Amino acid sequence: MHIKDVLATVNDEFQAVDKLIHEQLESRVPLVEKIAEYIVSSGGKRIRPLLVLLTAKAFDRADADAVKLATVIEFLHTATLLHDDVVDTSDMRRGNPTANARWGNAPSVLVGDFLYSRAFEMMVELRSMPVMEILSNATCVIAEGEVMQLTNVKNPDTTETQYMEVIHGKTAMLFEASTHSAAALLELSDADRTALKEYGKELGMAFQLVDDVLDYEGDAEEMGKNVGDDLAEGKATLPLIHAMAHANEEDRQLIRNAIRKGGLDDMNEVLRVVKSCGSLDYTRQQAIACRDRAQKHLENLPASGARDALAALAAIAVERTT
């Protein structure tokens, strides 16, 4: 199943989300609308709201509340992107200049705050305490994940366990919250809620693991961002952590020094070591293991086209090149 087939499963609901997104971006401050419209219209995959809709569709409940929850999730995600680009001093996302590159850091941060606030306004309208509990907790975990990543920048002693904790917080948590909050909104059984929560978590982990592989072997034009960004920022992602554990002493020191100083001066040599140690293959294998666990969590859900689409989405996350 291709991503187009997955999207076709909830095409009408996805269009309703898009409509609601633009309605909810309305603000009496023109710059808020301009920046918010720019970031939400810049070609993102919208995987997280898709997860909400597919979860609801799997139980024949893809109604107006599910559309609203999907919009909340997209606003939360977009807010984190605005903040992340400022923190990472990124100048390109999805093939376009970042909002902070166009308007500056202060407006980007403040519009991110606006999107967070608007998301919580809409969340209250759903009148579901379980949903509010899941999403308020998720936003805290995401913030902690970002701070944890920041404290690990230019630290070559970052362990694989610490790395997994960071990517769960900064990426997988919102995937997890998307399916978990949708299950809570639908008031599903505890077993189904747990299965969907764990599915979302494993999908998010797979997604980030593949992202970290693509940072070393992707195509910048196709990906819409700079290849080697992680090394340039001094981030010890799993390919580097694995390579340092398996390289000879000289190559290990090469990677440690590259992480400490950041930049791309040593990119070619680092890539040589990473490839010779099989570190990209190792990272991809970890993503495949996450995919397999994600799909297994779906096995006891009712058979439906939406459940098949969720399973396909886990496969697509691992096979993608962007």
Automatic annotation (TrEMBL):
Which CDD domains does this chain map to? Trans_IPPS_HT (cd00685)
MF-aspect GO terms: all-trans-octaprenyl-diphosphate synthase activity; metal ion binding
Q: Does the keyword Magnesium apply?
A: yes
Which reactions are catalysed by this chain? Answer: 5 isopentenyl diphosphate + (2E,6E)-farnesyl diphosphate = all-trans-octaprenyl diphosphate + 5 diphosphate
SUPFAM superfamilies membership: Terpenoid synthases
Q: Which InterPro entries match?
A: Isoprenoid_synthase_dom_sf, Polyprenyl_synt, Polyprenyl_synt_CS
What is this enzyme's EC? 2.5.1.90
The protein's role, per its UniProt record: Supplies octaprenyl diphosphate, the precursor for the side chain of the isoprenoid quinones ubiquinone and menaquinone.
Name this protein carries in UniProt: Octaprenyl diphosphate synthase
In its UniProt entry, the species of origin is given as Thalassolituus maritimus
Organism lineage string:
Bacteria, Pseudomonadati, Pseudomonadota, Gammaproteobacteria, Oceanospirillales
